[in-house]
Amino acid sequence: MSEGPVVFAYDGSDHARAAIARASELLAPAPAVALTIWESALGFVQRHHLPGSFEIARDVVDEFDDATRTQAEQTAAEGAELARAGGFETEAVARAALEPHGRDTTAAWRAVVATADELDARAIVLGSRGRSGIRSAMLGSVSQGVLTGTARAVLVVSEPEQDG
Amino acid sequence: MVVGYDGSDAARAAVDHAADRAGADGALIVVHAYGPPPDWLGLPDFSRVLEDHRRRGEAILDGLLLGGSDELADMDYETELADGSPTEALIRVADDRGADEIVVGSRGHGTLRSALGSVAHGVIGGARCPVTVLPQAYLEARRAGYQQAGSEGRAV
After folding, report:
1. Which of A90, A126, B60, B85 is least enclosed by beta carbons within 10 angstroms?
2. How far apart are the C-alpha atoms of A18 and A136, rounded to whole Å?
3. Which helix (H) or strand (E) holds B15?
């Protein structure tokens, strides 16, 4: 079966951090990739059909994207640091979301699935915010997309409920 | 580690994945839920039907070693026959036994192959521990691995 790294879908949120911590008890030691997906401002503009969107200068979008990419790289590096502390030999990867197509407005999950395929990932690790009662409804769109779109094992870590 | 088993080939591949992950020294509990058929509730034959389901569940768990890889035969695993739906049973057994992780196969509904199976969805929503979801395509590929390995019946 797959011998590639564990892929952490890492967005810097508390539940993504918690997912790395729990996964280190279950999957470490192993090679890993902390993957942060960023979205081009162009996709955002297209998706929301902003008035005047076609007049937005390309270099403005580029400037915006440079900042977003840099931020994503920092987030991925932070995730990689956490994963290393958890016993994973980890590489940080920031990647642009794939172009949206059709009615699929969240291309982030497809970038996660595609990256996992390229790396022949042994598993994808996702965080899912836990909240009592409506927890199943709290499965985010990225998690939902990855779970239905991949042919690989997916470890879903729900944040432990706060008692009381 | 807790894994669900309904007697299907796909579920057997999920058990093998869990056995692999748990390792020879790991603790593995294979759960089969024989949920009472709701349509029969209240009928005079209900207890007999329930008993039939329970027996069938026992037979399914007894047959566990017949398919799949040898890893399971080489490790200490437990089986648990549980009443209720597969979702309820997996969550309950994992809670009762303080499981670190639940492993569940995901099957799409009917023609919607890509849909997340309802058991996987329910377990993710209700479990206190992390849940590994194994998509149908993964389980089929794992199955195909044994067939390639031939009579040895070992995963490659």
Report:
1. B85
2. 18
3. helix B9-22
**pLDDT band at residue A47 under the 50/70/90 scheme:** low
Q: DSSP label at B113?
A: T
Residue of B1, B87, B101, B133 best to disrupt the A interface, most CBs of A under 10 A = B133
**Minimum-distance CB partner of B124 among A19, A123, A139:** A139
- Burial state string for A79-116 with b = 16 or more CB within 10 A and e = fewer than 16: bbebbbebebebbbbbbbbbebeeeeebbbbbbbbebb
Low-confidence ranges of chain B (pLDDT < 50): 109-113, 151-156
Q: Do A147 and B116 touch (CB under 8 A)?
A: yes
pLDDT at A161 over 70: no
Mean pLDDT, chain A, whole residue set: 84
Residue A143's pLDDT band (cuts 50, 70, 90): confident
Positive or negative, the CA dihedral A86, A87, A88, A90 is positive
- Per CB-CB distance under 8 Å, the chain B contacts of A149 are 114
- What does the pLDDT look like over A123-141, one tens digit per residue? 999 988 644 444 444 567 7
Distances (CA, A) of A5 to A24, A33, A119, A124, A161: 13, 6, 7, 9, 29
**pTM assigned to the model:** 0.87
Q: Which of A2, A6, A20, A26 to mutate to test the interface with B (most CBs of B within 10 A)?
A: A26
Q: Identify the contact set of chain A against chain B, taking CB-CB distances under 8 A.
A: 1, 19, 22-23, 25-26, 123, 128, 135-137, 139, 144, 147-158, 160-161
Strands B131-135 and A154-158, bridge-based pairing: antiparallel
Judged against a pLDDT cut of 90, whether residue A164 lies above it is answered with no
DSSP alpha helices (H): ranges in A27-150? 41-47, 58-85, 108-118, 141-149
Q: Which of A154, A155, A163 to mutate to test the interface with B (most CBs of B within 10 A)?
A: A154
Amino acid at B23: G
